[in-house]
Amino acid sequence: MAGVPDKITINVPRVISKLDHVRDSVVDFLKQHAISEGAASRIELSVYEAVVNIVEHSSHANNDKTIHVECRVHDDEVVIIISHFGEKFDITKAELPNIEKHYKSGKMRGLGIYFIMTLMDKVEYSHVDMLNTLTMTKKI
Amino acid sequence: MSVLQYSSAKHGPVTLITIGGSLDAETSPKFHAKIKGEIEKGAKRIVCNLERLDYIASAGLGVLISANDELSRQGGEIRLSAMNEKIIKIFKLLGFINLFKIFENDQKAIDSF
Question: Residue A121's closest CA among A78, A86, A88?
Fold first, then answer.
């Protein structure tokens, strides 16, 4: 789209109260690209769950290191790359809950990864030299 | 910074909770404490009005599921009302739309108990 950058990058501290900034920035960027509400909503939910997951589950030893989020719009897809330093945790290998059973068991946690894996078309993970990189793709 | 609006009122045996703003990882602990407080005070039949809810993350859904589970063990239930289009879409996308009983307005939800 003419005049609109094809990517944004956001660096956010590992603090829960700062993470809505990531969500808002990505949503604004997707609006500038006239991405459909349905796709934008899926991306908004997934990006937020991914950064929350990092803050809640990564080692406190890395609390001073920021999370880097990059969102790119291509012709037929949006690609979001989220990277942070820390221990390896491959969400693509995590066992997804059965939602009916999860609901009946009354569990409060464990839905974030389900959100991401359900809403994105492709999710890839790498861990190189302590750098975790999650790449999420949504067709548009 | 996310904001959660919360209010509650008694309608006979039903507690009507109105939630607005964002129910995400930041605000869900506050919501959890509030709804837990309602249950501890004896609320068994709860209607959550979600008309002014702008966003719900997994943490918010988790609180609703957990509170509903607590209530079901006491013979109670959470029912949802007046969900706006955005929140309905999120529930549909994630396969949660059939897990809760959903009503178009508060009165219908209250009368359903």
Answer: A78
Global confidence as pTM: 0.92
Residue A57 has a CB neighbour count (10 Å cut-off) of: 12
Residue of B26, B63, B89 with shortest CB distance to A108: B63
Q: Among B43, B40, B37, B34, which residue's Cα sits nearest to residue B13?
A: B43
The total number of residues shown for chain A amounts to 140
Residues B10, B18: contact at Cβ < 8 Å? no
Instruction: Examine the predicted complex and report whether its ipTM is higher than 0.95.
Output: no
pLDDT per residue over A61-105, tens digit each?
Answer: 777 789 999 999 999 999 999 999 999 999 999 888 888 787 777
Strands A122-128 and A131-139 turn out to be antiparallel
Q: Which residues of A touch chain B, with CB atoms under 8 Å apart?
A: 16-17, 19-20, 23, 38, 41-42, 44-45, 48-49, 52, 55-56, 99-100, 102-112, 114-115, 118-119
